[in-house]
Protein backbone atom coordinates (compact mmCIF):
# COMPACT_ATOMS: atom_id res chain seq x y z
CA UNK A 1 0.00 0.00 0.00
CA UNK A 2 1.77 3.16 -1.18
CA UNK A 3 1.77 6.12 1.16
CA UNK A 4 0.99 8.40 -1.78
CA UNK A 5 -2.44 6.80 -2.14
CA UNK A 6 -5.47 8.47 -0.53
CA UNK A 7 -7.51 7.20 2.38
CA UNK A 8 -11.28 7.59 2.32
CA UNK A 9 -13.20 8.25 5.55
CA UNK A 10 -16.97 7.88 4.95
CA UNK A 11 -18.00 8.99 8.48
CA UNK A 12 -15.56 11.67 9.61
CA UNK A 13 -17.89 13.47 12.02
CA UNK A 14 -17.93 10.63 14.48
CA UNK A 15 -14.48 10.74 16.05
CA UNK A 16 -10.92 11.96 15.63
CA UNK A 17 -9.78 8.33 15.95
CA UNK A 18 -10.51 7.56 12.30
CA UNK A 19 -8.91 10.79 11.11
CA UNK A 20 -5.91 10.25 13.37
CA UNK A 21 -5.22 6.82 11.88
CA UNK A 22 -5.55 8.13 8.33
CA UNK A 23 -3.18 11.00 9.09
CA UNK A 24 -0.49 8.53 10.07
CA UNK A 25 -0.97 6.22 7.11
CA UNK A 26 -1.44 8.33 3.97
CA UNK A 27 -0.27 11.42 2.14
CA UNK A 28 -3.78 12.23 0.96
CA UNK A 29 -6.92 11.84 3.08
CA UNK A 30 -10.53 12.25 1.93
CA UNK A 31 -12.98 13.03 4.75
CA UNK A 32 -16.33 12.07 3.23
CA UNK A 33 -19.95 12.55 4.22
CA UNK A 34 -22.70 10.84 2.23
CA UNK A 35 -26.32 11.94 2.35
CA UNK A 36 -27.77 8.44 2.04
CA UNK A 37 -31.17 8.60 0.28
CA UNK A 38 -32.37 5.67 2.42
CA UNK A 39 -32.35 7.99 5.44
CA UNK A 40 -35.12 10.07 3.85
CA UNK A 41 -37.55 7.29 2.99
CA UNK A 42 -40.29 5.80 5.18
CA UNK A 43 -39.84 3.97 8.48
CA UNK A 44 -39.96 0.18 8.53
CA UNK A 45 -43.35 -0.55 10.11
CA UNK A 46 -45.61 2.46 9.59
CA UNK A 47 -44.02 4.34 6.71
CA UNK A 48 -43.47 7.57 8.62
CA UNK A 49 -40.75 9.87 7.26
CA UNK A 50 -37.39 8.78 8.68
CA UNK A 51 -35.77 12.20 8.97
CA UNK A 52 -37.86 15.24 9.83
CA UNK A 53 -37.09 18.93 9.31
CA UNK A 54 -35.59 19.62 12.75
CA UNK A 55 -32.98 16.88 12.57
CA UNK A 56 -32.24 17.55 8.91
CA UNK A 57 -31.52 21.21 9.62
CA UNK A 58 -29.31 20.23 12.57
CA UNK A 59 -27.47 17.72 10.36
CA UNK A 60 -26.89 20.26 7.59
CA UNK A 61 -25.54 22.74 10.14
CA UNK A 62 -23.23 20.05 11.54
CA UNK A 63 -21.89 19.14 8.10
CA UNK A 64 -21.22 22.82 7.31
CA UNK A 65 -19.43 23.29 10.63
CA UNK A 66 -17.28 20.21 10.06
CA UNK A 67 -16.27 21.43 6.61
CA UNK A 68 -15.27 24.81 8.06
CA UNK A 69 -13.23 23.13 10.82
CA UNK A 70 -11.39 20.90 8.34
CA UNK A 71 -10.68 23.82 6.01
CA UNK A 72 -8.98 25.71 8.82
CA UNK A 73 -6.60 22.75 9.10
CA UNK A 74 -5.75 22.43 5.42
CA UNK A 75 -8.36 19.85 4.42
CA UNK A 76 -12.07 19.94 3.66
CA UNK A 77 -15.13 17.71 3.80
CA UNK A 78 -16.12 15.97 0.59
CA UNK A 79 -19.91 15.77 0.36
CA UNK A 80 -21.92 13.52 -1.91
CA UNK A 81 -25.56 12.45 -2.23
CA UNK A 82 -25.92 8.71 -2.64
CA UNK A 83 -25.49 5.36 -0.95
CA UNK A 84 -22.07 5.24 0.76
CA UNK A 85 -21.15 1.96 -0.92
CA UNK A 86 -21.90 3.47 -4.36
CA UNK A 87 -20.17 6.78 -3.63
CA UNK A 88 -17.04 5.07 -2.31
CA UNK A 89 -16.97 2.72 -5.30
CA UNK A 90 -17.17 5.68 -7.68
CA UNK A 91 -14.39 7.51 -5.83
CA UNK A 92 -12.12 4.47 -5.91
CA UNK A 93 -12.67 4.20 -9.65
CA UNK A 94 -12.16 7.93 -10.18
CA UNK A 95 -8.96 8.12 -8.14
CA UNK A 96 -7.46 4.92 -9.47
CA UNK A 97 -5.26 4.22 -6.47
CA UNK A 98 -6.78 4.08 -2.99
CA UNK A 99 -4.97 2.48 -0.06
CA UNK A 100 -7.78 2.12 2.45
CA UNK A 101 -11.33 3.00 3.41
CA UNK A 102 -11.71 3.81 7.09
CA UNK A 103 -14.92 4.04 9.13
CA UNK A 104 -16.54 3.43 12.48
CA UNK A 105 -18.36 0.19 13.18
CA UNK A 106 -22.05 0.46 13.99
CA UNK A 107 -24.45 -1.63 16.05
CA UNK A 108 -27.80 -1.86 14.22
CA UNK A 109 -28.92 -3.67 11.12
CA UNK A 110 -29.33 -0.95 8.49
CA UNK A 111 -25.93 0.50 9.33
CA UNK A 112 -24.36 -2.97 9.37
CA UNK A 113 -25.83 -3.59 5.91
CA UNK A 114 -24.08 -0.43 4.67
CA UNK A 115 -20.82 -1.66 6.18
CA UNK A 116 -21.27 -4.97 4.41
CA UNK A 117 -21.79 -3.14 1.13
CA UNK A 118 -18.65 -1.08 1.70
CA UNK A 119 -16.64 -4.22 2.41
CA UNK A 120 -17.91 -5.83 -0.80
CA UNK A 121 -17.02 -2.78 -2.91
CA UNK A 122 -13.58 -2.51 -1.37
CA UNK A 123 -13.02 -6.23 -1.81
CA UNK A 124 -13.83 -5.95 -5.51
CA UNK A 125 -11.26 -3.16 -5.87
CA UNK A 126 -8.74 -4.82 -3.56
CA UNK A 127 -8.83 -1.86 -1.18
CA UNK A 128 -8.11 -2.37 2.49
CA UNK A 129 -10.85 -1.80 5.07
CA UNK A 130 -9.87 -0.32 8.45
CA UNK A 131 -12.56 0.02 11.12
CA UNK A 132 -12.73 1.46 14.62
CA UNK A 133 -15.22 1.37 17.45
CA UNK A 134 -16.41 4.80 18.54
CA UNK A 135 -19.32 6.86 19.91
CA UNK A 136 -19.43 5.25 23.38
CA UNK A 137 -17.84 6.36 26.63
CA UNK A 138 -16.38 2.92 27.29
CA UNK A 139 -14.78 1.09 24.39
CA UNK A 140 -16.44 -2.14 23.36
CA UNK A 141 -13.17 -4.07 23.78
CA UNK A 142 -12.79 -2.83 27.38
CA UNK A 143 -16.11 -4.22 28.60
CA UNK A 144 -15.83 -6.80 31.39
CA UNK A 145 -18.49 -8.80 29.53
CA UNK A 146 -16.94 -10.93 26.82
CA UNK A 147 -18.48 -12.09 24.58
CA UNK A 148 -21.23 -9.46 24.31
CA UNK A 149 -23.85 -12.15 25.05
CA UNK A 150 -22.76 -11.84 28.70
CA UNK A 151 -23.91 -8.22 28.88
CA UNK A 152 -26.27 -7.91 31.87
CA UNK A 153 -29.95 -7.35 31.09
CA UNK A 154 -30.26 -4.85 33.95
CA UNK A 155 -28.59 -1.45 33.70
CA UNK A 156 -27.55 -1.29 37.38
CA UNK A 157 -25.54 -4.51 37.06
CA UNK A 158 -23.90 -3.17 33.89
CA UNK A 159 -23.06 0.18 35.50
CA UNK A 160 -21.53 -1.27 38.65
CA UNK A 161 -19.34 -3.68 36.68
CA UNK A 162 -18.05 -0.93 34.41
CA UNK A 163 -17.39 1.55 37.18
CA UNK A 164 -15.35 -0.99 39.13
CA UNK A 165 -13.58 -2.89 36.37
CA UNK A 166 -13.18 -0.70 33.27
CA UNK A 167 -11.44 2.55 32.36
CA UNK A 168 -12.37 5.25 29.90
CA UNK A 169 -9.84 5.64 27.13
CA UNK A 170 -8.34 9.12 26.62
CA UNK A 171 -9.46 11.32 23.76
CA UNK A 172 -7.25 12.06 20.79
CA UNK A 173 -6.37 15.58 19.70
CA UNK A 174 -6.91 16.57 16.08
CA UNK A 175 -3.69 17.59 14.35
CA UNK A 176 -3.18 21.29 13.70
CA UNK A 177 -2.50 20.57 10.03
CA UNK A 178 -4.29 17.80 8.15
CA UNK A 179 -3.30 15.91 5.03
CA UNK A 180 -4.88 17.43 1.89
CA UNK A 181 -7.28 15.94 -0.62
CA UNK A 182 -5.73 14.40 -3.72
CA UNK A 183 -5.35 16.94 -6.54
CA UNK A 184 -8.41 17.56 -8.69
CA UNK A 185 -11.03 16.11 -6.34
CA UNK A 186 -14.07 18.38 -5.99
CA UNK A 187 -15.44 18.83 -2.49
CA UNK A 188 -19.06 18.95 -3.67
CA UNK A 189 -21.86 21.22 -2.52
CA UNK A 190 -23.77 20.75 0.72
CA UNK A 191 -27.45 20.17 -0.10
CA UNK A 192 -30.28 22.35 1.15
CA UNK A 193 -33.53 21.50 2.94
CA UNK A 194 -35.32 21.96 -0.39
CA UNK A 195 -33.11 19.30 -2.00
CA UNK A 196 -34.81 16.81 0.32
CA UNK A 197 -38.29 18.20 -0.31
CA UNK A 198 -38.46 19.82 3.13
CA UNK A 199 -38.92 23.38 4.34
CA UNK A 200 -36.64 25.01 6.87
CA UNK A 201 -38.64 24.88 10.12
CA UNK A 202 -39.42 28.15 11.85
CA UNK A 203 -37.68 28.37 15.24
CA UNK A 204 -40.37 28.44 17.92
CA UNK A 205 -39.53 31.02 20.61
CA UNK A 206 -40.74 28.56 23.27
CA UNK A 207 -38.15 25.93 22.38
CA UNK A 208 -35.90 24.43 25.05
CA UNK A 209 -33.25 23.76 22.39
CA UNK A 210 -32.59 26.89 20.28
CA UNK A 211 -29.16 25.60 19.24
CA UNK A 212 -27.38 24.91 15.97
CA UNK A 213 -25.56 21.79 14.89
CA UNK A 214 -21.82 21.28 14.80
CA UNK A 215 -18.81 20.82 17.07
CA UNK A 216 -18.37 24.58 17.50
CA UNK A 217 -21.80 24.97 19.09
CA UNK A 218 -21.37 21.78 21.15
CA UNK A 219 -18.16 23.06 22.72
CA UNK A 220 -19.76 26.43 23.40
CA UNK A 221 -22.64 24.69 25.17
CA UNK A 222 -20.25 22.67 27.35
CA UNK A 223 -18.26 25.78 28.20
CA UNK A 224 -21.46 27.57 29.21
CA UNK A 225 -23.02 24.71 31.17
CA UNK A 226 -19.84 23.71 33.02
CA UNK A 227 -17.49 26.63 33.34
CA UNK A 228 -19.45 29.85 32.78
CA UNK A 229 -22.50 29.09 34.92
CA UNK A 230 -21.67 26.01 37.06
CA UNK A 231 -25.07 24.61 36.08
CA UNK A 232 -23.55 21.14 35.97
CA UNK A 233 -23.16 21.28 39.76
CA UNK A 234 -26.96 21.28 40.15
CA UNK A 235 -27.83 19.07 37.18
CA UNK A 236 -29.32 16.27 39.26
CA UNK A 237 -31.77 18.65 40.94
CA UNK A 238 -32.88 20.37 37.72
CA UNK A 239 -32.73 17.53 35.14
CA UNK A 240 -36.46 16.81 35.38
CA UNK A 241 -37.35 20.32 34.30
CA UNK A 242 -39.57 21.15 31.36
CA UNK A 243 -39.02 24.78 30.35
CA UNK A 244 -35.90 26.51 29.04
CA UNK A 245 -32.32 25.67 28.12
CA UNK A 246 -30.74 25.38 31.54
CA UNK A 247 -32.52 22.50 33.28
CA UNK A 248 -30.34 19.89 31.53
CA UNK A 249 -27.07 19.61 29.61
CA UNK A 250 -28.76 19.40 26.16
CA UNK A 251 -25.72 17.48 24.88
CA UNK A 252 -27.80 14.70 23.29
CA UNK A 253 -28.29 16.18 19.78
CA UNK A 254 -24.56 16.78 19.36
CA UNK A 255 -23.71 13.36 20.80
CA UNK A 256 -26.12 11.70 18.37
CA UNK A 257 -24.24 13.12 15.36
CA UNK A 258 -20.76 12.75 16.81
CA UNK A 259 -20.23 16.52 17.11
CA UNK A 260 -18.93 15.99 20.64
CA UNK A 261 -17.42 12.90 22.20
CA UNK A 262 -18.75 11.33 25.41
CA UNK A 263 -15.10 10.83 26.40
CA UNK A 264 -14.45 14.54 26.05
CA UNK A 265 -17.43 15.25 28.31
CA UNK A 266 -16.03 12.71 30.78
CA UNK A 267 -12.65 14.43 30.78
CA UNK A 268 -14.28 17.80 31.31
CA UNK A 269 -16.29 16.38 34.23
CA UNK A 270 -13.10 15.09 35.80
CA UNK A 271 -11.44 18.48 35.31
CA UNK A 272 -14.47 20.24 36.80
CA UNK A 273 -14.45 17.91 39.80
CA UNK A 274 -10.77 18.63 40.40
CA UNK A 275 -11.04 22.39 39.98
CA UNK A 276 -14.56 23.24 41.19
CA UNK A 277 -16.63 20.56 42.93
CA UNK A 278 -17.53 16.88 42.78
CA UNK A 279 -21.07 16.00 43.82
CA UNK A 280 -24.06 13.88 42.86
CA UNK A 281 -24.85 16.18 39.94
CA UNK A 282 -21.44 15.89 38.29
CA UNK A 283 -21.64 12.13 38.70
CA UNK A 284 -25.15 12.08 37.24
CA UNK A 285 -23.91 13.40 33.90
CA UNK A 286 -21.72 10.30 33.66
CA UNK A 287 -24.62 8.15 34.87
CA UNK A 288 -26.67 9.33 31.88
CA UNK A 289 -23.79 8.82 29.46
CA UNK A 290 -23.60 5.24 30.72
CA UNK A 291 -27.27 4.74 29.85
CA UNK A 292 -26.40 5.81 26.32
CA UNK A 293 -23.55 3.27 26.24
CA UNK A 294 -25.79 0.59 27.64
CA UNK A 295 -28.43 0.85 24.92
CA UNK A 296 -25.76 0.67 22.22
CA UNK A 297 -24.30 -2.47 23.75
CA UNK A 298 -27.81 -3.93 24.15
CA UNK A 299 -28.24 -3.40 20.40
CA UNK A 300 -25.00 -5.31 19.81
CA UNK A 301 -26.21 -8.16 22.01
CA UNK A 302 -29.74 -8.51 20.65
CA UNK A 303 -29.43 -7.35 17.05
CA UNK A 304 -32.74 -7.17 15.17
CA UNK A 305 -34.71 -8.03 18.31
CA UNK A 306 -34.58 -4.40 19.48
CA UNK A 307 -37.01 -3.68 16.61
CA UNK A 308 -39.23 -6.70 17.23
CA UNK A 309 -42.85 -6.25 18.30
CA UNK A 310 -42.27 -8.73 21.16
CA UNK A 311 -39.06 -7.01 22.23
CA UNK A 312 -36.12 -8.49 24.09
CA UNK A 313 -38.35 -10.54 26.38
CA UNK A 314 -40.41 -12.13 23.58
CA UNK A 315 -43.62 -11.04 25.31
CA UNK A 316 -46.92 -11.58 23.58
CA UNK A 317 -48.87 -8.37 24.19
CA UNK A 318 -52.04 -7.58 22.22
CA UNK A 319 -50.87 -4.20 20.96
CA UNK A 320 -53.47 -2.13 19.13
CA UNK A 321 -52.88 -0.35 15.83
CA UNK A 322 -55.61 2.27 16.13
CA UNK A 323 -54.48 5.04 13.76
CA UNK A 324 -57.11 7.47 15.05
CA UNK A 325 -55.79 7.14 18.61
CA UNK A 326 -52.25 7.44 17.29
CA UNK A 327 -53.14 10.66 15.48
CA UNK A 328 -54.55 12.09 18.72
CA UNK A 329 -51.33 11.21 20.49
CA UNK A 330 -48.89 12.54 17.90
CA UNK A 331 -50.85 15.76 17.33
CA UNK A 332 -51.20 16.52 21.04
CA UNK A 333 -54.97 16.15 21.04
CA UNK A 334 -55.51 13.37 23.57
CA UNK A 335 -57.40 15.60 26.01
CA UNK A 336 -54.74 14.90 28.66
CA UNK A 337 -52.94 18.24 28.97
CA UNK A 338 -49.56 17.03 30.24
CA UNK A 339 -49.31 14.57 27.35
CA UNK A 340 -50.54 17.07 24.79
CA UNK A 341 -48.12 19.78 25.89
CA UNK A 342 -45.15 17.46 25.44
CA UNK A 343 -46.28 16.17 22.07
CA UNK A 344 -46.86 19.68 20.77
CA UNK A 345 -43.43 20.75 21.94
CA UNK A 346 -41.91 17.81 20.04
CA UNK A 347 -43.72 18.67 16.81
CA UNK A 348 -42.88 22.37 17.01
CA UNK A 349 -39.23 22.08 18.05
CA UNK A 350 -37.88 18.55 17.59
CA UNK A 351 -37.12 18.38 21.29
CA UNK A 352 -38.77 17.08 24.44
CA UNK A 353 -37.50 16.74 28.00
CA UNK A 354 -36.51 13.36 29.37
CA UNK A 355 -39.40 13.56 31.84
CA UNK A 356 -41.79 14.25 29.00
CA UNK A 357 -40.49 11.37 26.88
CA UNK A 358 -41.03 8.87 29.69
CA UNK A 359 -44.58 10.08 30.20
CA UNK A 360 -45.78 10.18 26.61
CA UNK A 361 -44.22 6.76 25.97
CA UNK A 362 -45.96 5.30 29.00
CA UNK A 363 -49.23 6.89 27.92
CA UNK A 364 -49.03 5.44 24.39
CA UNK A 365 -48.07 1.93 25.49
CA UNK A 366 -49.79 1.53 28.86
CA UNK A 367 -52.86 3.82 28.70
CA UNK A 368 -53.66 3.60 24.98
CA UNK A 369 -52.20 0.11 24.46
CA UNK A 370 -50.82 1.06 21.04
CA UNK A 371 -47.97 -0.70 19.27
CA UNK A 372 -44.84 0.79 20.83
CA UNK A 373 -43.18 0.95 17.40
CA UNK A 374 -45.65 3.66 16.39
CA UNK A 375 -44.17 5.89 19.07
CA UNK A 376 -40.60 4.87 18.33
CA UNK A 377 -40.98 5.71 14.65
CA UNK A 378 -42.67 9.05 15.38
CA UNK A 379 -39.74 9.94 17.64
CA UNK A 380 -37.35 8.80 14.90
CA UNK A 381 -39.02 11.25 12.53
CA UNK A 382 -39.06 14.28 14.81
CA UNK A 383 -36.32 14.13 17.46
CA UNK A 384 -33.35 16.37 16.75
CA UNK A 385 -31.31 14.05 19.00
CA UNK A 386 -32.53 10.78 17.48
CA UNK A 387 -30.12 7.92 18.12
CA UNK A 388 -31.31 4.52 16.96
CA UNK A 389 -30.02 2.57 19.97
CA UNK A 390 -31.19 5.00 22.65
CA UNK A 391 -34.54 5.56 20.96
CA UNK A 392 -35.50 1.93 20.54
CA UNK A 393 -33.91 0.92 23.84
CA UNK A 394 -35.96 3.49 25.71
CA UNK A 395 -39.18 2.58 23.92
CA UNK A 396 -38.66 -1.11 24.70
CA UNK A 397 -38.08 -0.12 28.32
CA UNK A 398 -41.27 1.97 28.43
CA UNK A 399 -43.29 -0.77 26.78
CA UNK A 400 -42.20 -3.29 29.41
CA UNK A 401 -40.44 -5.57 26.93
CA UNK A 402 -36.88 -4.28 27.28
CA UNK A 403 -34.35 -3.87 30.06
CA UNK A 404 -36.65 -2.76 32.87
CA UNK A 405 -36.31 -5.14 35.85
CA UNK A 406 -39.73 -4.02 37.16
CA UNK A 407 -42.89 -5.53 35.71
CA UNK A 408 -45.80 -3.33 34.63
CA UNK A 409 -44.13 0.03 35.28
CA UNK A 410 -46.74 2.66 34.43
CA UNK A 411 -46.66 6.43 34.83
CA UNK A 412 -49.66 8.21 36.32
CA UNK A 413 -50.17 11.17 33.98
CA UNK A 414 -51.95 13.34 36.55
CA UNK A 415 -49.51 12.71 39.37
CA UNK A 416 -46.61 13.33 37.01
CA UNK A 417 -48.14 16.59 35.89
CA UNK A 418 -48.62 17.70 39.48
CA UNK A 419 -45.12 16.62 40.46
CA UNK A 420 -43.25 18.32 37.64
CA UNK A 421 -45.60 21.08 36.50
CA UNK A 422 -47.42 21.84 39.72
CA UNK A 423 -48.71 25.28 38.73
CA UNK A 424 -49.38 24.24 35.15
CA UNK A 425 -47.03 26.77 33.54
CA UNK A 426 -45.58 24.23 31.11
CA UNK A 427 -49.03 23.13 29.97
CA UNK A 428 -50.10 26.78 29.50
CA UNK A 429 -46.99 27.36 27.39
CA UNK A 430 -47.88 24.62 24.90
CA UNK A 431 -51.67 24.28 25.26
CA UNK A 432 -52.72 27.94 25.15
CA UNK A 433 -56.43 27.11 24.80
CA UNK A 434 -56.31 26.11 28.48
CA UNK A 435 -54.58 29.27 29.71
CA UNK A 436 -57.72 30.46 31.45
CA UNK A 437 -57.63 27.55 33.90
CA UNK A 438 -55.70 28.52 37.01
CA UNK A 439 -53.21 26.47 38.99
CA UNK A 440 -53.05 22.68 39.03
CA UNK A 441 -56.63 22.29 37.77
CA UNK A 442 -55.24 22.67 34.25
CA UNK A 443 -54.10 19.04 34.39
CA UNK A 444 -57.69 17.70 34.67
CA UNK A 445 -60.05 20.05 32.81
CA UNK A 446 -62.66 17.28 32.42
CA UNK A 447 -63.07 17.21 36.20
CA UNK A 448 -64.01 20.90 36.42
CA UNK A 449 -67.58 22.15 36.69
CA UNK A 450 -69.33 23.66 33.68
CA UNK A 451 -69.20 27.04 35.38
CA UNK A 452 -65.44 26.81 35.96
CA UNK A 453 -64.82 25.76 32.35
CA UNK A 454 -67.06 28.56 31.06
CA UNK A 455 -65.23 31.12 33.15
CA UNK A 456 -61.91 29.83 31.72
CA UNK A 457 -63.26 30.02 28.17
CA UNK A 458 -62.95 26.27 27.65
CA UNK A 459 -65.54 24.07 25.97
CA UNK A 460 -64.61 20.40 26.09
CA UNK A 461 -65.06 18.69 22.76
CA UNK A 462 -64.82 22.05 20.95
CA UNK A 463 -61.97 24.28 22.10
CA UNK A 464 -60.12 21.35 23.71
CA UNK A 465 -60.69 17.59 23.36
CA UNK A 466 -62.28 15.36 25.94
CA UNK A 467 -59.76 12.74 27.14
CA UNK A 468 -59.49 9.77 24.80
CA UNK A 469 -58.94 7.61 27.88
CA UNK A 470 -58.98 8.03 31.65
CA UNK A 471 -57.09 5.66 33.92
CA UNK A 472 -58.72 4.72 37.25
CA UNK A 473 -55.60 5.62 39.23
CA UNK A 474 -55.82 9.24 38.07
CA UNK A 475 -58.86 9.89 40.26
CA UNK A 476 -56.74 9.88 43.43
CA UNK A 477 -55.01 13.04 42.24
CA UNK A 478 -57.89 15.04 40.78
CA UNK A 479 -58.36 18.36 42.61
CA UNK A 480 -55.19 17.59 44.57
CA UNK A 481 -52.89 20.54 45.14
CA UNK A 482 -49.19 19.98 44.64
CA UNK A 483 -47.26 20.17 47.90
CA UNK A 484 -43.65 20.83 48.72
CA UNK A 485 -41.60 23.96 48.29
CA UNK A 486 -42.08 26.13 45.21
CA UNK A 487 -39.97 25.16 42.25
CA UNK A 488 -38.66 27.48 39.52
CA UNK A 489 -40.93 28.06 36.54
CA UNK A 490 -44.05 26.65 38.16
CA UNK A 491 -42.76 23.20 38.99
CA UNK A 492 -42.59 21.88 42.48
CA UNK A 493 -39.42 20.04 43.32
CA UNK A 494 -40.05 16.28 43.20
CA UNK A 495 -39.26 14.20 46.22
CA UNK A 496 -35.61 13.25 46.30
CA UNK A 497 -34.75 9.60 46.62
CA UNK A 498 -31.42 8.16 47.55
CA UNK A 499 -29.70 7.04 44.36
CA UNK A 500 -27.95 3.75 44.36
CA UNK A 501 -24.34 3.87 43.32
CA UNK A 502 -23.62 7.39 44.57
CA UNK A 503 -21.72 6.34 47.68
CA UNK A 504 -19.90 3.73 45.61
CA UNK A 505 -18.76 6.41 43.18
CA UNK A 506 -17.42 8.72 45.83
CA UNK A 507 -15.70 5.97 47.79
CA UNK A 508 -13.66 4.60 44.92
CA UNK A 509 -10.39 6.02 43.70
CA UNK A 510 -10.94 7.83 40.40
CA UNK A 511 -8.13 7.47 37.89
CA UNK A 512 -7.61 10.45 35.62
CA UNK A 513 -7.31 9.78 31.91
From TrEMBL:
<feature type="domain" description="Photolyase/cryptochrome alpha/beta">
    <location>
        <begin position="1"/>
        <end position="137"/>
    </location>
</feature>
<feature type="region of interest" description="Disordered">
    <location>
        <begin position="473"/>
        <end position="501"/>
    </location>
</feature>
<feature type="binding site">
    <location>
        <begin position="385"/>
        <end position="387"/>
    </location>
    <ligand>
        <name>FAD</name>
    </ligand>
</feature>
<comment type="function">
    <text>May have a photoreceptor function.</text>
</comment>
<feature type="site" description="Electron transfer via tryptophanyl radical">
    <location>
        <position position="395"/>
    </location>
</feature>
<dbReference type="Pfam" id="PF00875">
    <property type="entry name" value="DNA_photolyase"/>
</dbReference>
<dbReference type="GO" id="GO:0071949">
    <property type="term" value="F:FAD binding"/>
</dbReference>
<keyword id="KW-0157">Chromophore</keyword>
<dbReference type="InterPro" id="IPR036134">
    <property type="entry name" value="Crypto/Photolyase_FAD-like_sf"/>
</dbReference>
<dbReference type="InterPro" id="IPR014133">
    <property type="entry name" value="Cry_DASH"/>
</dbReference>
<dbReference type="InterPro" id="IPR014729">
    <property type="entry name" value="Rossmann-like_a/b/a_fold"/>
</dbReference>
<keyword id="KW-0285">Flavoprotein</keyword>
<dbReference type="InterPro" id="IPR002081">
    <property type="entry name" value="Cryptochrome/DNA_photolyase_1"/>
</dbReference>
<dbReference type="GO" id="GO:0000719">
    <property type="term" value="P:photoreactive repair"/>
</dbReference>
<dbReference type="GO" id="GO:0003684">
    <property type="term" value="F:damaged DNA binding"/>
</dbReference>
<dbReference type="InterPro" id="IPR005101">
    <property type="entry name" value="Cryptochr/Photolyase_FAD-bd"/>
</dbReference>
<feature type="site" description="Electron transfer via tryptophanyl radical">
    <location>
        <position position="319"/>
    </location>
</feature>
<dbReference type="InterPro" id="IPR006050">
    <property type="entry name" value="DNA_photolyase_N"/>
</dbReference>
<dbReference type="GO" id="GO:0003904">
    <property type="term" value="F:deoxyribodipyrimidine photo-lyase activity"/>
</dbReference>
<comment type="similarity">
    <text>Belongs to the DNA photolyase class-1 family.</text>
</comment>
<dbReference type="Pfam" id="PF03441">
    <property type="entry name" value="FAD_binding_7"/>
</dbReference>
<dbReference type="InterPro" id="IPR036155">
    <property type="entry name" value="Crypto/Photolyase_N_sf"/>
</dbReference>
<protein>
    <recommendedName>
        <fullName>Cryptochrome DASH</fullName>
    </recommendedName>
</protein>
<keyword id="KW-0274">FAD</keyword>
<feature type="site" description="Electron transfer via tryptophanyl radical">
    <location>
        <position position="372"/>
    </location>
</feature>
<feature type="binding site">
    <location>
        <position position="235"/>
    </location>
    <ligand>
        <name>FAD</name>
    </ligand>
</feature>
Amino acid sequence: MGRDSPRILPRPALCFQVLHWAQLNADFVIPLYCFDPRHYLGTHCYGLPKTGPHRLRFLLESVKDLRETLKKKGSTLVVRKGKPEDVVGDLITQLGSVTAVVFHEEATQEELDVEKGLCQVCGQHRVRIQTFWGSTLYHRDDLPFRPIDRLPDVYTHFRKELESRAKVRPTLRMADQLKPLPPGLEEGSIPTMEDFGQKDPVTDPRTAFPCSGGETQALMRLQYYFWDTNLVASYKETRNGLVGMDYSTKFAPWLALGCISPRYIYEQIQKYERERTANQSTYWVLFELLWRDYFRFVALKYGRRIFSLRGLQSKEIPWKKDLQLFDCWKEGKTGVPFVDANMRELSATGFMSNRGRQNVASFLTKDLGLDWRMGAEWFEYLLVDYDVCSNYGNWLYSAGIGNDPRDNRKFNMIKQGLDYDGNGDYVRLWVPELQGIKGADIHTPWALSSAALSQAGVTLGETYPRPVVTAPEWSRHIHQRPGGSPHPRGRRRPAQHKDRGIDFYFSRKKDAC
